[in-house]
Every structure is written in C-alpha cells, then in structure tokens.
C-alpha cells in the first residue's frame, strides 16, 4: 500500500473543502481499502466522512423513501419502513456480501463500488478502467461472469451492487452536495455505461458527495422482491439477478418495474419487459412472454452466452414469485 494522508471531518463544509482539494471520501471502506491494498487505487488523501449526519431513513412527504448515504446496509435492510414499503430493497441488501460487511458498508459506498472484474483488480493485466487506452484483457481472456448488456469495445465488466438493481427498478434519485451546491440525478443517469470512457463510472462532479438515495412514491400495495442467481449460495456476486415491483388492481397489472443485475455494465432496467406486463392479467403465460424480452440488445462474448437464457429464466421466475399466477 502506498503512503497517504488521513483526515476525519464532522460536517459537510469541511468534507467539501477536503474533497475540493482532491481528497477521496471514505466511510465503511469495504471497497476502497481493498483496492488500495491491491494498489489499484492510490489516493493521496482519505477523507473520513463517517461522522457526517447522513444516517436517517425517512418517509417523504409524497410517500416515498429517503435513505441517507451513510446508513449501513444492515440498518437499511432491517428498517421497518424499508421492509414494509419496498421489500425488494431489503432482500437485495440481505443477499449482498457477508453479515460483517453489511454491518460496515454504507448505502452510498455500495452504489459507488467499482467492478469486481479480476482483470481490473490485477495490476499486471491491461484494463481500460484502470488505465485508459491500455486495452481490455477480459475480451480475449476468460469472461464467463462479464456483462452481456451495455458493453463496449473498451469494457465488459459488470457493476457488482445488488441494491443498485433495486434502485434502478424503482427509478430512484441520487441526491448530491458539492462545491456548486445541491443537485439530484436520476439513478439511471448516475451510473455510467463504459462507452469510450470506461474509467468514468459515475456522474459525479469533482468534490461532490452523495447525501441520500430517494425512492419515489409508488401506488400501494406494491408487491416487490429480489432474486439472485449465483455459483454458490452465499458471499458471491450475481451471475444474474432480477428486481421486480408490481402494482395490481382489479386483477390487472397497472404498474411494473423490472431491472436486472449481473448482466450489465450498470444495473439494467428492462422497459420492454415492463411494457409487456402493463395492462395484462397475471398468468404463467404472461410471465414467460414478458421474460422473453429481458435480453433484448444483449451482446454476449464466447464464455458468457449462457447468460442470455439464464437472464430470461431469472426474470420469469421472479415475476412468478412476486406476481403469482391465476
């Protein structure tokens, strides 16, 4: 690990001043510290923001939910407001990492975490995320766990967060505070696809700080849940996953929110699936028809072609679990 300086701040003004000077924010440190040990990340200054007052979970005036950026994953998963309103969030958090990590890692840090691509973390391998223009070792190497959606010639790494898939499905908003004041970014615009600049992963401006993630109000009762398919039962990243939320009234699906994980360079919203569902009556045949659209636009590589069918089956299964059948 390379030498670095460390400072701890207790208010947002001090945090922004340190961030403006080039400091890297750290709270739980469950991702950044690992990357520093592997010399993938080499920040000159760490700014500990764990004492900032960003730990509240509150119901908004319109009936949505606002989760502070420094709320621990375990706290958010167990919170009655989260569990009662959006079970998909609680389930996604509980299927993430280990209990020890969930007790340390924060909501803001979780959506900011960088890919678990082995080539990105191996400093002897070429990686455009780590060194722009150097190449992508995954494309010619072993890429079974890599993305089939949102890839480019520059990068095929998946985003590893589970709860980010739930946030994408529910069309959340990320609230930010920076040198130029407050602003909000739709979750769909916050995490960036690689394109020609895979090293730029979030729509953050210099010195900006995540303050909260807000989920808008949805019609009640909203049925929701998260399904994660992986090589082993625990402490493993998704091969595929599906976050589903359905609002059914008078036997007809009035609203559908669906997103997938483990298959995209960012959590992947599935609007074609959603359109197939809205206005229809729940049935086994409907789930199968809708799930057929889950892999629209997929560009698999040699070793991960299986993810196309696995994604469709994952989405269909979770639609059955959340929506049931008549």
Automatic annotation (TrEMBL):
GO MF term list: FAD binding; oxidoreductase activity
Protein name: Xanthine dehydrogenase family protein subunit M
Pfam families reported for this sequence: CO_deh_flav_C (PF03450), FAD_binding_5 (PF00941)
InterPro entries (UniProt xref): CO_DH_flav_C, CO_DH_flav_C_dom_sf, Diverse_Substr_Oxidored, FAD-bd_PCMH, FAD-bd_PCMH-like_sf, FAD-bd_PCMH_sub1, FAD-bd_PCMH_sub2, Mopterin_DH_FAD-bd
SMART domains recorded: CO_deh_flav_C
Keyword Glycosyltransferase: no
Keywords, comma-separated and alphabetical: Oxidoreductase
Extent of the signal sequence: none
Domain called FAD-binding PCMH-type: residue spans: 1-220
């Amino acid at each position: 690990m390379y030498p670095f300086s460390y400072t701890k701040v207790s208010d947002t003004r001090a945090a922004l001043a340190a961030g403006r000077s080039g400091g890297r924010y750290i709270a739980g440190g469950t991702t950044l510290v690992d990357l520093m040990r592997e010399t993938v990340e080499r920040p000159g200054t760490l700014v500990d923001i764990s004492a900032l007052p960003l730990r509240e979970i509150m119901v908004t005036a319109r009936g949505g939910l606002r989760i502070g950026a420094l709320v621990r994953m375990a706290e958010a998963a167990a919170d009655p407001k989260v569990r009662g309103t959006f079970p998909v969030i609680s389930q996604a958090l509980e299927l993430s990492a280990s209990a020890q990590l969930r007790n340390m890692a924060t909501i803001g840090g979780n959506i900011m975490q960088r890919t678990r691509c082995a080539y990105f973390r191996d400093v002897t391998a070429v990686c455009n995320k780590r060194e722009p223009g150097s190449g992508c070792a995954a494309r010619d190497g072993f890429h079974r766990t890599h993305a089939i959606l949102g890839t480019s010639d520059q990068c095929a790494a998946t985003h590893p967060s589970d709860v980010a898939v739930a946030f994408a499905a529910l069309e959340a908003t990320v609230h930010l505070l920076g040198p130029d004041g407050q602003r909000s970014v739709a979750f769909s615009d916050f995490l960036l696809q690689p394109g020609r600049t895979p090293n730029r992963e979030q729509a953050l401006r210099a010195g900006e700080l995540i303050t909260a993630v807000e989920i808008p109000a949805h019609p009640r009762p909203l049925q929701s849940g998260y399904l994660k398919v992986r090589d082993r039962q625990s402490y493993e990243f998704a091969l595929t996953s599906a976050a589903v939320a359905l609002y059914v009234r008078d036997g007809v699906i009035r609203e559908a929110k669906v997103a997938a994980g483990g298959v995209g360079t960012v959590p992947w919203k599935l609007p074609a699936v959603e359109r197939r569902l809205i206005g229809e009556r729940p049935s086994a045949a409907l789930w199968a028809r809708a799930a057929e659209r889950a892999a629209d636009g997929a560009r698999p590589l040699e070793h991960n072609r299986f993810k196309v069918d696995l994604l469709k089956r994952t989405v269909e299964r979770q639609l059955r679990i959340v929506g049931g059948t008549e």
